[in-house]
Amino acid sequence: MQDFLQLDMDESLPLRDVVCSTLRRAILLGELKPGERLMEIHLADRLGVSRTPIREAIRKLELEGLVTMAPRRGAEVAQITEKSMNDVLEVRRALDALCVELACDRITAEELESLRLACESFETAVRTADTKEIAHADVALHDIIVRATGNQRLIQLVNNLSEQMYRYRFEYIKDTNQHETLVEEHRIIYQSILSKDKKTAAEAAKTHIDNQEQAIIRRIRLDREKKK
Q: Helix axis angle, 40-47 relative to 51-63, nearest 10°?
């Protein structure tokens, strides 16, 4: 069987960054599971590199919150816990509400059209039932709204949370029962921005995050029960 863990080769980047990107992607997509140990020798062998870029990548991913250092175990993929999720989504909830409010005032006609098309692309992706494609379409849609704020500091703050946010979003999107809800929430957000209805847009953005949080909590608790 072919190993899913293969370098995302990019000759313009230092090897440590390529290794970091490869491991980050594997964690975000669940290919490296929560709690899985990240042993330098084993990873170096799988990726065909020395231990040095592996070690540097692990340090960077630890700073991003995707890797934790456990006593007597060393580096391992960070667990998805209710506390870690709440910390991220609590901040993202406030930022997303601010983003849609600013977008109501600042979005250009071109960006608005891009947002409409992004909503359509998301609906198309949902019909494919391809989780990775759905997640990609979802990120692309939200990125348009964030950029439409024109606030570089806000854009930077959202981007700083993007990796961890993607991980939780990907867990949410795995639940096919939520797909139609996601489609409808995106429609409401788009229509609210189109009509410059800040109140409805902000409430829809918050509901969007709240529903995600509740769904992931159900999954976390179900997984916990299975392990008992």
A: 110
Closest CA to 35 of 81, 1, 96: 81
Backbone angles phi, psi at 27, to 5 degrees: -70, -45
Tokens 């594997």 belong to which residue? 26
Integer-rounded Cα Rg, in Å, for the chain is: 19
Measuring CA to CA, which residue among 222, 216, 190 is closest to residue 82? Answer: 216
DSSP secondary-structure letter at 176? G
- How far is residue 20's CA from residue 96's CA, in Å, rounded to a whole number? 27
The half-sphere exposure of 112 on its side-chain side, counting CA atoms within 13 A, is 13
The percent of residues in the chain predicted with pLDDT above 90, rounded, is 64
Phi-psi region of 48 (alpha: psi -120 to 50; beta: other; left: phi over 0): left
Q: In the structure, what pLDDT confidence band is assigned to residue 4 with cuts at 50, 70 and 90?
A: low
